[in-house]
Write a structure and sequence with these properties.
This protein folds into 2 domains: 145 residues, Response regulator (Rossmann fold); 101 residues, Beta Barrel (OB fold (Dihydrolipoamide Acetyltransferase, E2P)), CATH 2.40.50. It is built from 7 helices and 15 strands. β1, α1 and β2 form a beta-alpha-beta unit. The strands form 4 sheets. A 5-stranded parallel sheet has the order 2-1-3-4-5, sandwiched between helices. A 5-stranded antiparallel sheet has the order 10-9-8-12-11, with no helix packed on it. Strands 13-14-15 form a 3-stranded antiparallel sheet, with no helix packed on it. It is of the alpha/beta class. InterPro entries: CheY-like_superfamily (IPR011006), LytR-like (IPR046947), LytTR_DNA-bd_dom (IPR007492), Sig_transdc_resp-reg_receiver (IPR001789). Pfam families: LytTR, Response_reg. This is DNA-binding response regulator.
């Protein structure tokens, strides 16, 4: 089993209360995470990151002096670059944040559920990295570089996040959490393992931005995540349906899309 006890992190936020709260919340959600520095401004954060070389950085975007985006840009020369988790109360920074290879993006106030999800993504990613590194050469960084290139490379043009609404809230939904999308009236409903969200982007535009190995358009009104499919069945009339592995969901497959399942 790969040892994750050595994961280190730096917190940078100009709000003392938030730094304290995040530190305590992380100790509960991620006991293996060692907070090696907690800074109140971008310049101090950058110095600590360069000195401590943490695995993860929780980085506020709006800070006095050097802001979080500028800190992230300055990390391009560090090898390896830490996983950057941006923290902000302003969701309009999302696109800019991901241009700087953000691993995740937390909106204030940070909920326990959302923080737990982020911690699980960090654990899963670092487990994969360290497993791959140990499988090849324990002293080589090539395995890490390959995985970072796959996950964070700007050459990957597929969506990683979907900006969607849930009630009065605007949320950034990881594409990895999406089970299926369905066009309904003027909106598209995004169904995830954690709930339902709404977006205005038409399906015909979304399908161009999703990885075709992971998402199939099975109907003019439906896109489904392939690994969410449990089985495919026909009813007595010959119509084909996919059954998802969770939530007891059944989705119709159009005649034109049935060829997608010939090899399944």
């Amino acid at each position: 089993m790969v040892d994750l006890k050595t994961i280190t992190a730096v917190i940078a936020d100009d709000e003392p209360l938030l730094r304290h709260h995040l530190n305590r919340s992380l100790s509960d959600a991620f006991p293996q995470l060692d907070i090696v520095a907690s800074e109140a401004d971008g310049k101090s954060a950058l110095e600590s990151i360069k000195q401590k070389r943490p695995d993860v950085v929780f980085l506020d975007i709006r800070m006095p002096g050097l802001d979080g985006i500028s800190v992230a840009k300055a990390l391009n020369g560090i090898d390896p670059i830490p996983l950057i988790i941006f923290i902000t109360a302003y969701d309009e920074y999302a696109i800019q944040a991901f241009d700087e290879h953000a691993f995740d993006y937390l909106l204030k106030p940070i909920t326990e559920k959302r923080l737990l999800k982020t911690c699980e993504r960090i654990r899963s990613y670092l487990f994969s990295v360290r497993t791959e590194q140990r499988r090849t050469d324990p002293n080589s960084v090539e395995a890490i570089e390959r995985l970072v290139a796959r996950i964070q490379s700007p050459a990957n043009s597929y969506l990683r996040w979907i900006k969607a609404s849930k009630g009065d809230d605007i949320c950034l939904v990881p594409v990895d959490d999406v089970n299926y999308l369905k066009a309904e009236d003027k909106y598209v409903s995004v169904y995830t393992r954690y709930g339902e969200y709404l977006i205005r982007t038409p399906l015909k535009e979304l399908i161009k931005q999703l990885d075709p190995d992971l998402f199939w358009q099975i109907h003019r009104a439906t896109i489904v995540r392939v690994d969410a499919i449990d089985r495919v069945k026909r009813d007595f009339t010959g119509k084909m349906y996919v059954h998802l592995s969770s939530d007891n969901v059944k989705l119709a497959v159009s005649r034109n899309a049935q060829g997608l399942f010939k090899q399944m």
